[in-house]
Prior knowledge:
Chain A is of the alpha+beta class. Chain A is built from four helices and seven strands; from the N terminus they run ααββββαβββα. In chain B, helix 14 crosses helix 16. The chains are: A alpha+beta, B mainly alpha.
Amino acid sequence: MKNKYVYVLFFLPIAVLAAVMGYYINAIRFERVEIVVSGYDPKDFFSGYYMELQPNWSETDCTQFADAKCPTNAFKNRYKFYIKNEQSAQLTKAVNAGIVKLVFSYRQGYTPHIVDLLADNKSYIEYLEADK
Amino acid sequence: MVIKKKATADKIAPVKKTKTTKKTSLKKTETTEKKTPMVKAIVKENPIAAITPKTAIPAHHNENYWFMVLLYFASFLVGLGIIAMIAANWQQITNNIKMLGALVAMIVNASILIWTVQSEKNVLKQVVACVYAFLIMGVIGLIGQIFHLPADIENALLLWSAISWPLLFAAPRLLWLWIPLFYCGIGCTDLKTLWQLIFDGSLYTWFHRPEINITSFGIGIDLLRNLCILGLFTVYEIFMLSKHSDHKTIRRPLFFFSGIMMYAVYNRVVKAAYATILLPNLTLSFKAGLFGAYVLPCLILGYILLTINHYHNRNGFMPFFLLGTAIEYLWIFITIAADINVPDILQNGSFNHYPFEAVCPLLFLGITTIYTSYRRVDFRDRLACYIGLLVWFGVTFNENIFDLVPCLILCSIVAWLAYKENSRKWFNIAVLATVIRILGYYADVSDLLHAGFYLIGSGLFIIAVILLLMKYGRLLWENRNEK
Lengths: 132, 483
């Protein structure tokens, strides 16, 4: 390769992906809101196992938002939460029981991002360990 | 005859590298360096081969091609393993450590790549670049997993193609991966639309939903987008070919994908012409609009593409036409086989629109067959491979593991025949078919973590074996010849 500065380009993917990581790390630092969800557990070829979840606004506590009004338009109709394969059966039961909530990092005017999954008001990892 | 000529050209290459003029037409090609006695002897023996542009083969084409293909295959396995392990979702490790680990792995990989480029380790450079390409893909998947982003494969591939292009400097062969993934990134995720990407939306929508006006805003934007993509790709191709007119590694994938695009152009032109001429319930102004907005740009762009390829290498371009046709035809055949209910046809005699869809590629196949025969291209080999591909497609897309074995055997036979006949192109296609089939099997593996370990381990094993063979294999052959 004649131009040695071309080598710098090999670090382009690292710089871009680090910036993407930084963007999302910043995006999950907003206020937390909890939204009740329903869904199921498919498998994705590229990403592995996840739960496909839909916000259930009728069951969600809207007082956590400004003016006690759920900003339904700010959220998508479907979300994916990545889990391990062996956790899917237990979590599906919890989802069917209606005790699962998604925790979002939310600020008005910004896109909400998933932070955690709660089952029976505790982190899903704790819930799964307790439920064994 | 063609094979013999190629073999002679390959023999000449290591003896003496000659410079060709930038535009590699047969008549204008001249050697500018002083000829050694050995080259003079070869020229005397076979003057045609000596003045063919194939004498100016770059250094990286002196590699043993099946070693290189296997190395790329092994790198592919390692990369796939990385993605599988990431997909296995390691919850024991905190997100920050995962991200840090991913960045460190990429920095290490990039540093090794720079070292291999600087120290001119040509083979290792390509392996590292290939693994790096998959690592980038894996890290994009990891980010999606950590932040629970929607699994938008198109955006992920678009991001990958936008940031991984510098790797093409180190390993131009990655164009074979980069171009189709870029295609997928801009909105084309299945086999059928891959071939028809450039002209997908407009007429398809019009045929299937005739109530929508083709000149409506949405369809116009769709057409404009597709034409822009084709235009950009054409500009890119002209640029690359003018910069590297004698660089086979760059020329081949460009020919391949422009061949497929040419087929898309052809297919759409025929359909549009059919609609313009034969459909009775269209007004004259509508037909004129259809011709002006659709057929004419297709013809102009098609002509540009054909001229570029014709100018550079006609014979290298035509087989890809055939391949595109074969795949399209097979796809339609499979669609018909899957959709048609034979008793229903016998009772009602309804075929819907299928005959026309099937006649299109058949017509094209006929034209290209006559053309290639007229041009005295080695047609029999291609016909054999074409039939082989038909059979391969017949058995390959099944989920049952027992179908994996005959497919791999068939691919091995095609690869062996191609190797025996000294046809690199078809050998590579057979290996590619194997890779795709194994990829299909990977989709059925339930335990991603074990699959990841298995893929990385087997990939590294193949790389190690090939590198050893490349280093010491020549000695083995020399010893064999001495005996």
